[in-house]
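Anyone up for a design puzzle?
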């Protein structure tokens, strides 16, 4: 279902459920397990990627068929709540979570990527929420995240028209942070994950909380979160060591650059 590999401060979780990696309870549980393993193992970043040509094609067809059965809306609502719980779990994790998006990232599969802190897509990826074409909406609060991240105009374009866009257009709309050539995605995503994970783990955790408060649009809450972050960081030994090392480098550079002292005799 998911292959787990450790690469220094990065835990790489590779989805290998199927060609489309469609979402069902088993995949949700596997992703939650990878997140818990990364948190408990001291990783700084969880790198979520796919072994196939597609990141995640959305709801598993078996689940969609169950929505049309006797359980009807109850089955759909139960799945949507379960997937929303996973996405909220990713957002609330102290880890940075990065999605490497190749091929399809559709419906709730896009919702999974949008719950991640960082997203890198291949230029030829197919991104969108095409459920309106078949009389549905994307589950797991995906429409909410789409509007919150890309804005109402982009959300209306994708949600109401059922339009699928490529990685370059997703980058232009602000849905992904980086877009790279198809053949470079794996290497570029791995390098970016390592680069992010080299930052201060404590500062990354605090930055994620401050950004979460900011997204809620509450200025006073953002300020309170920022102030609390400063207090925790300045008392944490790991950032203190980084700050001290920086000061040491700056002071050494200042000594090297200082003009030579001159003396005069009477």
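Challenge accepted. My sequence:
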């Amino acid at each position: 279902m998911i292959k787990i590999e450790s690469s220094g401060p990065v835990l790489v979780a590779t989805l290998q459920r199927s060609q489309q990696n469609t979402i069902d309870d088993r995949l949700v549980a596997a992703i939650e397990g990878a997140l818990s393993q990364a948190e408990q193992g001291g990783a700084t970043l969880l790198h979520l990627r796919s072994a196939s040509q597609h990141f995640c094609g959305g709801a598993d067809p078996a689940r969609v068929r169950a929505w049309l059965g006797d359980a009807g809306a109850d089955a759909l609502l139960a799945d949507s709540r379960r997937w929303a719980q996973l996405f909220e779990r990713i957002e609330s994790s102290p880890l940075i979570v990065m999605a490497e998006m190749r091929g399809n990232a559709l419906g709730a599969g896009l919702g999974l990527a949008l719950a991640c802190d960082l997203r890198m897509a291949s230029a030829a990826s197919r991104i969108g929420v095409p459920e309106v074409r078949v009389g549905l909406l994307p589950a797991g609060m995906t429409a909410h995240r789409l509007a919150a991240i890309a804005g109402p105009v982009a959300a209306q374009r994708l949600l109401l028209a059922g339009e699928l866009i490529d990685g370059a257009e997703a980058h232009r709309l602000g849905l992904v942070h980086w877009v790279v050539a198809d053949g470079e995605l794996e290497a570029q995503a791995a390098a970016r994950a390592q680069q992010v994970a080299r930052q201060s783990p404590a500062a990354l955790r605090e930055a994620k909380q401050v950004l979460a408060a900011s997204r809620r649009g509450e200025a006073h809450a953002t300020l309170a979160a920022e102030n609390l972050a400063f207090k925790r960081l300045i008392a944490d030994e790991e950032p203190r060591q980084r700050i001290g090392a920086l000061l040491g480098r700056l002071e050494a550079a200042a000594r090297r650059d200082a003009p030579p002292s001159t003396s005069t005799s009477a």
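A detail worth pointing out: The first strand starts at residue 2 and ends at 7.
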